[in-house]
């Protein structure tokens, strides 16, 4: 399956194809029309153990391919790793005709993408996502690292030259990683595709056993929503903010619990449940979303707001990247597929948070 | 005087106006049509002592203006200062509606610009150059920091929202700083404007006593050359490389001597003399450039290639950002105003270097 994203910088393809990791080099040459002078594969230790060899074997012998392996997990999105990778690129004497390959989940994609964005003021890079969550982060060109004062606070927009998705890579994912990624899948249904939402309810009943066709179609349809939105609003000046549905509270929960205590998607799922409730209140509508909450719960999600101080959650929501002048802006739904970005008063949020917490 | 640069991202103005530092805030609002939520002025300790107060006084009381001061000199373009400034921006709780003001020379412009390029994936910034050299670096959107393995190896393209040039700020510059900046001025004449070259010879006979009109016109005409080239080739895929005239050897000399031992422009001047000689040889032309070398010497330039190992110079030229596959590409002149980028063999370079060195 093949999607095209028409970014303002250059169009690029998203290929979703089981087994494609074994032909990575061919896909790159065919799809990007580039002939890089050399390659640097950036991956993490877990992915390296599983898939690095297969990926490297796809390159002909005469092509120079270097490898840098970072530790797995969010902590790799640090200034230190960023600087280390730039040093490695310089030591490998990569020139501006070189290409970086991000082989991994969202962390590797963001980190390697930021290295590509800033090495010699920008060289091309290719995303090879290995998680379901990365179906979201690998499209749209957002790259960056974390700062101790906030996640993703340092970064750039740097569009990939190609996204090559091999769904077979997901077969080794643990359950919580599926949950983390699937929250973004269902989010795309909520904000833009009511039919997809229903398709998901019918077709995804377990993360244990996948039909490769269903998995590929799910990734395709979810990416299609994301791709359309980022095409229309590359630099997040307008509609791209809708992708933040469930994320304002989700990010605050992640940060307050401490990163790694809960996966991104599991926190976003809690945030979506909350945003759905606030939506009904603010717009005086009945969204009938309970059936989807049940679906999420049957897939193992715990949708209860964790036992943290709600005033601290509120403070964190105020310093979100999307906030202006410390007001809190929320993505809410008038109906499925019809999101709106609006300012919410602290009072409404506090009231809802107090009501929902622990129940 | 007013120039407009039509960058692909957004058009921006370059204002050259004596005394304008005292109306910085008004110029920003008028020219950028933005109303930033707050400002962060980034400057260095030397500039802060001289001009920070005047600049800050241009802001109305109700506008929030924060200040970060870095040490002066090339060493400030480090990962450490970069991270410190991002931390400061987060501590000041700057949101995406904030604006960064780079008040300083090329170092401050590059560093502050890179912070602006990557803070929350990019916020607007304004260049307020305080050196002659910065007339070059403040236009075109190149921002970045140094790596111990190479200068400007980490960075981005991030276009300023405004360049506000107050030539009065240059009156406190030491002689070698004038020389550093003027090399880029005359370079613009060499590569693109023969008439300007002649105008310079007639009008610039000393860096001690300036007529403010002559100085403003010189900056204007030199920036006009730069602006036209970067408009045509924003991301350095083609003609922008012509701006590298004199820089291939210049950079190598700077790096080999150790940064700070010779100013950028003084090294570039040596590089231009060398490139002129190589041009005559390669193109079998007579450029009659001696009159301009004399002019430079009368302005205090030492155009002799310093006593360093020429094989080391050659190695450094090979790892230049502009090089591909370790070949050496040089900007040469067929005639004044008619540059060409061509690959030069090591043999020709070695021969010329051996001949010119120390003589």
Extract low-pLDDT stretches of chain A.
Answer: none
Helix content of chain A: 40-55%
Most extensive chain contact? A-B, 36 and 36 residues
Total domain count of chain A: 2
Q: Count every helix of chain A, treating DSSP H or I runs of 4 or more residues as helices.
A: 13
Please tell me the CATH architecture of the largest domain in chain A by its name.
Up-down Bundle
Secondary-structure-based class of chain A equals: alpha/beta
Would you kindly provide a written description of the structure presented here, covering whatever features stand out?
2 copies of one chain form a homodimer. Chain A has 13 helices and 11 strands. The termini of chain A are far apart. In chain A, α3 crosses α4 (106-118) and α6 runs parallel beside α10 (264-283). The model of chain A has no long low-confidence stretch (mean pLDDT 93). The first copy, chain A, has a 7-stranded mixed β-sheet, sandwiched between helices. A two-stranded antiparallel ribbon of chain A has the order 7-8. Chain A has a two-stranded antiparallel ribbon with strand order 10-11. The first copy, chain A, is an alpha/beta fold and 359 residues long. Chain A folds into 2 domains: 2-172, Rossmann fold, CATH 3.40.50; 179-356, Dehydroquinate synthase-like, alpha domain (Up-down Bundle), CATH 1.20.1090. Helices cover 45% and strands 19% of the residues of chain A. Chains A and B meet through α3, β7 and β8 of A and α3, β7 and β8 of B. Chains A, B: It comes from Evansella vedderi.
